[in-house]
Design brief:
By secondary structure, the chain is mainly alpha-helical. The protein has one domain (2-241). The protein has ten helices and no strands. Helix 1 (2-20) runs parallel beside helix 9 (193-219), helix 2 (24-34) packs parallel to helix 10 and helix 6 (127-144) runs antiparallel to helix 7 (148-155). The longest helix is centred in the C-terminal third of the chain and has 27 residues, at 193-219. It is globular and about 45 Å long. 45% of the residues are buried.
Length: 242
């Protein structure tokens, strides 16, 4: 049953990811926690499954990687992600309801950041603002596998082409994933090889879900899909918090 639930949840998350370009972690982590996985298991499973998939995407888009922006972002995320992992391991000692509320708050924060990104005009951020965005991204990635929204917010200040934007986020995730998984594997009592095998088994479902999601996204307007996805995320967050 855990494998079945994980497959269904990750398929749904990858469907949304393919359609609107974000939200896999935002959807998968709270639902995996609701299904009975520990928070570290949910984070590790999401990180592993996405990592397996995006290896191919990053390789395909390697010519479009904006390395001048990737380098400082990758360094800051690698420095702050372990802090998120350490906090994750500490909050797991609280009761299950407390963990669910934490994840719900994380989802709501991601939604708020994503909405804020729509309101920001194209402009250069100060160095301090960029450092804050990358640091928050790494911290949230380590804590609840939701490091995407701060990156989306930051990218609204850059004139990235679509392929550059995808290459930017995929490359950063690939740099973070091995460190995050290794930390969880060695430090978390609930993280084990069974979770790694589960991620490998459901990775084809993630690929299929993403492929279908991309086709759905091509048929409907992006603004409409974004609004539907954000509405779903708010419902998930409130359900986890109440």
């Amino acid at each position: 049953m855990p494998l079945i639930w994980a497959g269904i949840i990750m398929f749904a998350g990858s469907l949304a990811q393919g359609a609107i370009g974000f939200a896999l972690g935002l959807i998968a982590v709270p639902l995996l926690v609701e299904a009975g996985f520990s928070l570290s298991q949910a984070v590790a499973l999401t990180t592993l499954a996405i990592g397996i998939q995006v290896i191919f995407g990053a390789w395909q888009l390697r010519a479009h990687i904006p390395w001048e922006d990737v380098k400082p972002a990758a360094i800051l995320r690698l420095l702050t992600a372990p802090l998120g992992v350490l906090l994750l391991l500490n909050v797991e000692t609280v009761d299950a309801d407390g963990v669910k509320r934490l994840v719900g708050i994380g989802v709501l924060l991601g939604v708020i950041l994503r909405v804020a990104a729509w309101k920001i005009a194209q402009r250069e951020w100060s160095g301090a603002a960029s450092i804050a965005a990358f640091s928050l991204s790494g911290f949230l990635q380590g804590l609840v596998a939701m490091g995407g929204p701060p990156l989306v917010l930051w990218m609204t200040t850059r004139d990235f082409q679509a392929k550059q934007a995808r290459a930017f986020t995929l490359t950063l995730f690939l740099f973070n994933a091995p460190v995050q998984v290794l930390l969880l594997l060695f430090l978390s009592q609930s993280m084990n090889l069974e979770v790694i095998m589960m991620a490998l088994l459901i990775s084809p479902l993630i690929y299929i879900g993403t492929t279908i999601g991309v086709r759905i996204g091509d048929r409907f307007s992006k603004p409409l899909l974004n609004k539907v996805a954000l509405a779903v995320l708010v419902v998930i967050a409130l359900n986890a918090m109440l």
